[in-house]
Amino acid sequence: MAEAHQAVAFQFTITPEGIDLRLSYQALSQIYLSGLRSWKKRISRMKNRVIKGVYPASPSSWLFVFIATLAAMYTRSDLSMGLIAKIREILDDTDRFSFLGQTVVSVLVFSTLLWLSLILTLRFCLKLLLSYHRWMFEQHGHISATTKLWVTLVRLMSGRKPLLYSYQTSLPCLPVPPIKDTLERYLESVRPLLSDPEFQRMTALAAQFEETLGNRLQRYLKLKALWATNYVSDWWEEYIYLRGRGPIMVNSNYYGMDFLYVTPTPVQAARAGNTITALLLYRRKVNSEQLKPSRVPGTVVPLCAAQCERMFNTTRTPGEETDVLQHWQDSEFVAVFHRGRFFRLWVYNAGRLLSPREIEYQIQRILDDPSMPRPGESRLGALTAGDRVPWYNVRKQYFSSGVNKRSLDCIEKAAFFVTLDDDEQGMKGEDPAGNLDRYAKSLLHGKCYDRWFDKSFSVVVYKNGKSGLNAEHSWADAPTVAHLWEYTLATDAFQLGYTEDGHCKGEVERCLSPPQRLSWEIPKEVQEQVSVSLSVAQALADDVDCHVFPFRDFGKGRIKKLKISPDAFIQLALQLAYYRDRKTFCLTYEASMTRLFREGRTETVRSCSNQSCAFVKAMECGEQCRRLFQLATEKHQNLYRLAMTGSGIDRHLFCLYVVSKYLGVESPFLTEVLSEPWRLSTSQTPVQQLELFDMKNHPDFISLGGGFGPVADDGYGVSYIIVGEDMINYHVSCKRSFSETDSHRFGVHIRQALLDIFSMLTAVKPEVPQEQDKKQQ
């Protein structure tokens, strides 16, 4: 109970001699320093609001405008065209100012209004510039004069040091594509997947939809686009993620892995200490907006940073019909799980962030704690892994008051969740390939009760020092989490570092209060529901088959020498691999970002096209198919660009479907489109977004990337990360319950498809004999 006594700043008792008042100066000091930190953060936020509010101008530019206007007045040049004189007349009626005071105040008012007008004009011009997307469709190395001028203007308008959220008000809104264009692109995308009669039927459905209901739904959607910041994002978050009533483990959450070859330290507590510190340093940068805004790689074009706002101190709470994302402004602790017990670990002391060595010391205290889990505590996390409605009912009845609510609040309001896992993971060992597969499954679902799947993200630190994370999907997409995790790994290994014996650097203040063990009162009814949720989650986890493998034969370096987009190359290899695996083509999902627009998230690139199918068929028949490959890659790149610039297919059709449901009207066309399964779901994980270290000088510090579960029960989920110039890491998943899919077999097909395509492109063309050439002529 030592921590409970320290939490009380003063105590008093009433005795016959009077009142006995005892002050705890240590507690009062803690309260004072904590309050001081809170006020510093408030002042910082206010300062940042001012800087963001006037961007792309600066606060100091107001002084320049004021002085320039005042100087013009004294040189008898009226820049205001009589406005200053009118303001002076109004002030003259009040009889409160002298003539000089009236002049200064008039200039002050006018210059402020002029300054605000200039800010709005600059912001409008920047938004117009950022609405220009033709640069994306120009060939590499053939930049038009218009684009060169546009780049210069964007650089001039962007200011010198923008904050993380400076561009938010200048980003354009996501446009609503013409319904005719969307339907044409949709029909083109499904043509290779349908027989002639099926395609004719779908064409008729699309035409009927356009002529009848489509234009009506489109008008409502355009009205929303005028009113809302983004016409897709709020519906996408609610209906795709938060309204799902099934388990979010495997079905929604995804994972990120540690370095492939390197484990910075084998000491579990030390790795946890540095990892927690790095994450909190990232949070500090987010809160102070000192992170540089993300941009399209190799360009000056900024990306929306809205997803960073709910990165920390965020939890998805269950509801009866829809879940809710709850975000708290700040949190000075993290929640820790170890051997069936939950702890609250304070990471600030007297307003100061604990050093990595101090956090390691506190983590070691948890690891050394011999106490046993209380009845029903050890598998409580399974409630977040099972179906959502039972979790909502249990939470409402048994976790809405008392000790259970206080302990649950500690988890949900924590900065993030940490699991200290007793298992050892990583590639090293007698079975490197199998170890990577087990590592992926551990991060994806663990034991189904040792992660808190509702948290925005949960960090896992294994016994041998390996680490990883599991992220909830509704609040942000993988590139945002990848940015966080890349910073964490690089800061851990290259900035914080370790001592020679593997411990964190720094000193330890021995008077730190020990981590607080959370208390629970778990009745029999809750324990029964925990068992039910665990059985549901365990069945789902056992059904998932994961395969992780690094492809080292070549990477983007040799692909680029062939003047081919690496992503297009990989996507066509996936098409070839799937055709060899299933002897057919399927609807393919590739995630593309729409963060060129405010509050943008993702759009679908339908990678299976007429051109890709023609190439795959020619490849399988042994025909010359270089030209077909070129056409297929050009088509894929064009589809990707259309998706990034707001002219995709699926988000538009999804929103039209939502509008139809609100209006209570049925559309056979939309119903069929939205029910089509994505049997091949793919995503590329970005890497080197921050460039915190040089990968050429540190080739062993290669990221494994991350992965996700299959979207369809009879399909595959494929995530890949292009690492450096010579490696591509793949994460493949499928369901064991479907006999025709096998992640390891598909991995073999992917590897062979990559090699076959590269061999086809690099093979020397056979020379045609001169006599034969003359006959052909």
TrEMBL record:
Pfam families assigned: Carn_acyltransf, CPT_N
Membrane topology of this protein: Multi-pass membrane protein
An example Gene Ontology biological process: fatty acid beta-oxidation
Enzyme class: transferase
MF (Gene Ontology): carnitine O-palmitoyltransferase activity
EC number: 2.3.1.21
Stretches assigned to the Choline/carnitine acyltransferase domain: 174-751
Any one cellular-component term (Gene Ontology): mitochondrial outer membrane
This protein's record includes keyword Nucleotide-binding: no
Known catalytic reactions: (R)-carnitine + hexadecanoyl-CoA = O-hexadecanoyl-(R)-carnitine + CoA
UniProt pathway: Lipid metabolism; fatty acid beta-oxidation
Domain Carnitine O-palmitoyltransferase N-terminal: 1-47
Keywords: Acyltransferase, Fatty acid metabolism, Lipid metabolism, Membrane, Mitochondrion, Transferase, Transmembrane, Transmembrane helix, Transport
Taxonomy, superkingdom: Eukaryota
Main location: mitochondrion
Residues passing through the membrane, by range: 50-74, 104-126
InterPro entries documented for this protein: Carn_acyl_trans, CAT-like_dom_sf, Cho/carn_acyl_trans, Cho/carn_acyl_trans_2, CPT_N
Annotated catalytic residues: 473
Location(s), subcellular: Mitochondrion outer membrane
Family listed: Belongs to the carnitine/choline acetyltransferase family.
Name used for this protein in its record: carnitine O-palmitoyltransferase
Source organism of the structure: Esox lucius
